[in-house]
């Protein structure tokens, strides 16, 4: 759907439920800017809240029932106030708002007795831009607003994550909800995953982000993530640290030297080097952003990709092709796989001279090699989740 106006969301709500909404909340999607697999290693990650959103409009109802509808789906789903087990099949999207509803109770926050809720979005679902977190956060803000309550970004992100972990069953970290909650236009969100602690870093409006989504997904993706996670834990244990981000690149090189019997097997040494250097790259990216050096930021992004490709081995030939095509372009500052890897998307940081024709040419050259055109999305940094309208 194209970007809806408040009037359009209100009209659709009226048409669906026969009453006007009391509140509309909006939450952005996000991209992982840099910080690849650093989260579970105790490192840092930089996320960008993006100008694609999920809107949730809501009103209380007197029936004490939960009525849910997404503009992407045909019908209103009506449930009793305690709907029991997880929903399966075509209505399974409702587990996200229902998970929020239950999480409000888990966290002793107020909630309305019954509600009518409508979801509208211009954020593609399942494209790695975290529509799920945007849905959780906009639902949370809307339901709380119905009972006159508000929530700070930190607890908002924690509640959304709780809902996704416990009620949807996805063991996500804090990047998705943290970035959507703390986003600020003209900034990136820095997350120290150990706190988690959130800060924002300036990101100039002249910087543009392009997503090239290959739409490929490795068949063994869950197993591959789990293997990488275990390899990182094993490497940390052998090196005598709790988590790999406890080490600087110099300390890793020293510890993994030939003396002392600590030398890691080759594959584990590569995984450890990727994580430790990636954590340092996040730090270096923040420093480069603070001095306004976008060229250096771009070089760090491409270095992150090459490390994924060669050391962490979570890239694919399709992702490598995109980075290889993007890297030499004069209007491209840098490019890397974004997200867990083993498929998914490449993010490019570009100057404003990178035109739609340039994007189309990259896509054409990619299709020559891989047989199909990637999905291409232009993004800029955006504000975090908030209530945008009240009756
Ligand atoms: P991502 O978060 O990267 O987009 P996920 O698989 O985590 O991918 O979440 C996508 C799921 O979130 C969808 O399958 C759907 O259940 C839910 N969802 C996202 N956007 C909407 C929407 N506009 N309407 C209903 N459900 C949505
Ligand atoms: Mg998600």
Structural notes for this entry:
The chain contains 11 helices and 12 strands. With 391 residues, it is an alpha+beta fold. The protein has 2 domains: 6-202 and 382-390, Ribosomal Protein S5, domain 2 (2-Layer Sandwich); 208-379, GHMP kinase, C-terminal domain (Alpha-Beta Plaits). The strands form 2 sheets. Strands 1, 2, 3, 4, 5, 6, 7 and 12 form an 8-stranded mixed β-sheet that branches. A 4-stranded antiparallel β-sheet has the order 9-10-8-11. Helix 2 packs across helix 4, helix 3 (131-146) crosses helix 4 (153-168) and helix 4 (153-168) runs antiparallel to helix 5 (175-182). The longest helix has 25 residues, at 266-290. The two termini are 24 Å apart. The mean pLDDT is 94. It binds adenosine-5'-diphosphate (ADP) and magnesium ion. Adenosine-5'-diphosphate binds next to strand 5 and helix 3.
Ligands and ions found: adenosine-5'-diphosphate, magnesium ion
Approximately what portion of the residues adopt beta-strand conformation?
15-25%
User: Gap between N and C termini, in Å?
Assistant: 24 Å
In CATH, what is the class of the largest domain? Alpha Beta
Number of strands: 12
- The radius of gyration computed from the alpha-carbon positions, rounded to a whole number of angstroms, is 22 Å
Level of helix content?
Answer: 40-55%
Sheet with most strands: 8 strands, mixed
- The 3D shape can be described as globular
Class from secondary-structure proportions: alpha+beta
Low-confidence stretches: none
- Oligomeric category: single chain
What's the tally of helices? Answer: 11
CATH topology of the largest domain: Ribosomal Protein S5, domain 2
On the 0 to 100 scale, the average pLDDT is 94
The number of domains: 2
Order of helices and strands: HEEEEHEHHHEEEHHHHHEEHEE
CATH architecture descriptor name of the largest domain = 2-Layer Sandwich
